[in-house]
Design a protein that fits this description.
The chain is of the alpha/beta class. It has a single domain, classed as Rossmann fold (3-Layer(aba) Sandwich). It is built from 6 helices and 10 strands, in the order βαβαββαβαβββββαα. The strands form 2 sheets. Strands 1, 2, 3, 4, 5, 6 and 10 form a 7-stranded mixed beta sheet that branches. A 3-stranded antiparallel beta sheet has the order 7-9-8, with no helix packed on it. Helix 1 packs across helix 6.
Length: about 170
Amino acid sequence: MQNIGIFYGSSTGNTEAVAKKIQEELGSDIASSIDVVDASAADLEKFNNLILGTSTWGIGDLQDDFEGFLAEISSANMDGKKVALFGLGDQYSYSDSFVDGMGELYETLEEQNCELVGETSTDGYEYDASRAEKDGKLVGLAIDIENQDDQTADRVANWVAELKNQFN
């Protein structure tokens, strides 16, 4: 498995904490975590495998720092890269827009020449609608710190174990 860049946007520290858990599961020797506020398209291009993580704010809005980072993603050469996504959201208070920020990232990446990996089951979540659900699966790892924080560590560990099989 080659080097992995974990890029996240975090307003309250929750997304950063999940990014660090993912980095710990992968191993700090092969994974680096980078706040998108300090990142550019050139930083994305340094890695063969990418993990992008964002929270969803309000009713389906992408985290502020990631909103500005979409242009960097669109301008980066993503040819041949494998990209996995994770998103934070509140499935009860915002059940009509659960992890929509992750869905917006997915839609941006669909336009790039990269391979999207890391989809997960919708089992264990209760929400009405999500831009991050495609063909009955979530496009990445969904984390609900507000309502299911007790499941975060297991969800991260299980997802990372799957990613290790999907990344080079």
